Amino acid sequence: MDQPFAKSSTSFRTASGLNPYTGVFGKDALIHLLKRSGFGAKPSDIQALSSLSLAQVIAKILTQPSSAPTPPVNVYNDANYTDPDVPYGQTWINAPYTDGTANYWREVSFKAWWTGLMIQEEQSCLEKMVLFWHNHFATQLVEIGYARYAYLNNILIRNRALGNFKTLVKEITLDAAMLNYLNGQYNTKTAPDENYARELQELFTLGKGPNSQYTEDDVKAAARVLTGYRINAQAQGYFDSTRHDTANKQFSSFFGNTIIGGKTGAAGATELDELLNMIFANDEVALYICRRIYRYFVYYEIDAATENNVIVPLAAIFRQNNYEIKPVLAALFASEHFFDPLNRGCVIKSPVELTVGLCREFEVVFPNKTTNALNAFYMCGYVQSVASNLQQNIGDPPNVAGWPAYYQEPQFYEIWINADTLPKRNQFTDRFAGSGYTRNGSTILIDPIAFADGLSNPADPNALIADSLAMMYSIPVSQALKDFLKTILLSGQSTDIYWTSAWTDYKNNPSNASFYKIVLTRLLSFYKYLMNLAEYQLT
Amino acid sequence: MKRRAFIKTAVPAAVIPSLIGGFTFEAIGATSWLSALTAANTETDHVLVLIQLNGGNDGLNTVIPIDQYSNLSLARSNIILPENKILPLAGFAATGLHPAMTGLKTLFDEGKLAVLQSVGYPSPNYSHFRATDIWLTASDSNQVLSSGWAGRYLNEEYPNFPVGYPNATMPDPLAIQIGSVVSPGLQGPGANMGMAISDPNNFYNLINGVQDAAPNTPAGKELTYIRQVTQQTQQFATVIKAAAAKVTQQVPYPTSNNLANQLKIVSRLIAGGLKTRIYMVSIGGFDTHAGQVDATQKESGFHASLLKKVSDAIKAFQDDLTYLKVANRVVGMTFSEFGRRVKSNSSGGTDHGAAAPLFVFGDPVKGGVLGTNPVIGRTVNEYDNLPMQHDFRSVYASLLQNWFCVPTSTLNNVMLKNFQPLDLIKPSYTCPVGGVITNPNLNAGKKLISNYPNPFTGSTTIQIITSAGYTLVQVFNIQGQLIKVLHDGVMTAGTHQLTFEDEGWGPGIYYARLQNGSIQQMRTLVIAR
């Protein structure tokens, strides 16, 4: 799965490394940073951050928000369904498991709530990292069948997303969702279940790189260390020493023939710390995680130059900082490699990046989540369902390895795009550059006039095109394409003045329906076209 | 067309190491992989449908070795089927199907279903992802390939794809994946050979207007890829819609059965006249670590409902193919990344295992059971696994050779080695040239591999009786790992003796496997304490 040195076939990869980027930190560099570290670049964020230095922006987006999000609430009670345990407007996160129907609605609520957090996020890398860790420590609601576990898992990840990775691994090991998903709760001394022990090594810490040489016996020994964990009624993991295997656990030469001495009683729980210390003593952990981070934020191809110039030094930073995540991200985002022209625009947007990103970059107006909670829930739920249809269903990745776009050789991100999903992506953007999505009296859609109005000089079609491309595309386009785009704004006329006067007429008479319609239809066609081209799928 | 240039340089790197790595079953010969690029297409209207059971299907709860029932019920008392519920197979009374699989039982009775026992590969991997990759790429256990076996086959048949396609001789997609994610099995050495569709009636117009030349950067590579998908989608949308429109009536399919929904689309497209050769469909949920049966009624429960879906879907599909008069063109097979452990766990499920049975079905398929029931010991440890009898790549190779009529030289480029062909296709369907298969039952009942002493300490003498030709003798441990290759090459006809030494393997049960042409037999070896 993880073959970091398998390919070095392309001549166009770069040898740049982790040295600090010293080029101009202008608008295009800021947009690149915001698009990669978050979902789309909001015009208001670009505005707010444009006077800051690169270091200041990085410090800002890596700051853990001081307040936790308000939990999702029951807005799904309606004429057809009433949650028997949760009154309307109250949160369901502490409610016990009721039945499949109640759980279904809570799951829908959970996913819409999470999508809302991504759409509404302010100048931060947090949501992008929450999704990163969800992909990394994948759990599936469809398997777990208990929305409360998924919510607690999400909160755990949220609290640690920019924190310490080793702490995160320990907490995930004891997390109810994970204990349920990978059968940790059934792993006992009489019937060891290897499921979690295997993935802990293969997917969560060491990976399957060429030097990750743990053995099948190490999986079995780790499974025995991990015997005895259960889930209590409060949805917390706990250690039950009566189920713990108290014999010694012998590991292979890859782990220096470590023996984790079996312990009785409550002390048995400390074997987990020994296990993690043993695993984290190996350099492969930092290398593997840095490759995962690289593939998420930069590009999927890791050739020998990238391995040596980026991954290896990044992993060293990770280890020197005791597996703190922030210094790694800070070094990556500040590097000349990150801003290298060869690394721009080469990420194919994931479905969440496409859908949430569109809402953010056009600052699509959503119903207020306090005063119109029901419709906010409907709208966020819709965006989530589109991403799901495009094969990224948050809360339900395809399996424990997460989404194949982040690991499957040789296609990686290209897996997102095929004859089924590409037309669906176009349908989604067309809808938002058209009549939008309407339910229960609320509509979400692109307001192209508001977007254009925020640009430097929307009356000049050339400036309008250049500014729009700078915001929406991550690769430069030719003059021929710009010329074609202008014909959309000019409805086939050849002088710029037609657009300029149309725009000026509207601005001077905003309530004139005819003037409004003239600019609206042209801008909608213009943005629809931009989003239909392959370039828009890249970021 | 920069991507193609990239592909051409990428191919040798991807293929050549696999030719030199590992032990070879037969020399690849002088045929260069390059020759394949100029090889003529094989003319055939044959279709192969691959049904992937995701998660690792519990083979011992699917095809039950009835003669092992008492030991099996000791090893998995909390999940074992009631013996009287098992559906015995006519002519193979010692082997039975799970009671939920009445549809497959009917196909078996009609001689349209082959049950292959204990399919696997040496040194099985127990990771879902790695094992799935191994099945889809047809690699050795310790070998990493980045192309899929079906993708390599289509690359041989349709070189240069997607450049120059569609065209007059191949106006249709080469392979269709029902769903929204194309299987890595359809990944060719360069391009992906598959097209994903979820609804053959509904296509959306894509724009391919003013296009800048893609820059020679990673971004340019991805841009080119997306544009290619755009182009193919547009081109193929018309032919797929037309094919679907030709079929207006189908037999009823089971409802609430996603696999049936997928197969319904497949039969419609086949009958609608697409020249597409390979279809892939899948169903998930087979990773039954816990609660795989109903505790009080062990013939029902989670695994039973999955098996029922598979069986019902295949039966309806087969009926539909017959109704649409295309059943003589279609062969299907099921596969899963691994079987499950012989011993059940205390959570009413089974952990990741090794070899497992698979099904090949269709009018052209020679019905019956290939191979023998796995032997279950009286005491089974939690890590014990079934040894393989058939290499899964033999199944692929046989279908390529005898169903798709792929010449031997090309076959080597696809499978990268020579694999034992299996007798899967009825003689009336076999290809005009090549593909001569010895009846594997010719020597049924004869003991072709034996050893003395047994149990033994130190060493034992293994005696084999062979026909002239390529012969392989392997020894596996009880976890399915290949520990020794005693012979790998051509032998004369007659009786031969080989020595197997205990090089510190430790006391326990081992399996010697003889493969001689299309014949294979197993022998249990015991190293005494």
Structure description:
The complex is a heterodimer of chains A (539) and B (529). Chain A has 539 residues and is mainly α. Helix content of chain A is 50%, strand content 3%. Among the domains of chain A are: 182-281, no CATH class; 449-537, no CATH class. Chain A has 24 helices and 6 strands. Chain A has a two-stranded antiparallel ribbon. A two-stranded antiparallel sheet of chain A has the order 3-4. The longest helix of chain A is centred in the first third of the chain and has 21 residues, at 100-120. Chain B is α/β, with parallel strands linked by helices. Chain B folds into 2 domains: 2-429, no CATH class; 449-527, Immunoglobulin-like, CATH 2.60.40.1930. In chain B, strands 1, 5, 6, 7, 8, 9, 10, 11 and 12 form a 9-stranded mixed sheet that branches. Chain B is globular. Chains A and B meet through helix 10, helix 11, helix 19 and helix 22 of A and helix 1, helix 5, strand 7 and helix 7 of B.
Structural class of chain A: mainly alpha
Strand order of the largest sheet of chain A: 1-2
What is the number of helices of chain A? 24
Rg of chain A computed from alpha carbons, rounded to a whole number of angstroms: 25 Å
Largest contact between chains? A-B, 74 and 61 residues
Q: Tell me the span between the first and last alpha carbons of chain B.
A: 65 Å
**Quaternary organisation:** heterodimer
Mind describing the biggest β-sheet of chain A? 2 strands, antiparallel
Could you tell me the radius of gyration of chain B in angstroms? 23 Å
Unreliable residue runs of chain A:
1-9
Strand content of chain A: under 5%
Q: What is the helix fraction of residues of chain B, given as a range?
A: 25-40%
Tell me the number of strands of chain A: 6
Low-confidence stretches of chain B: 1-40, 433-442
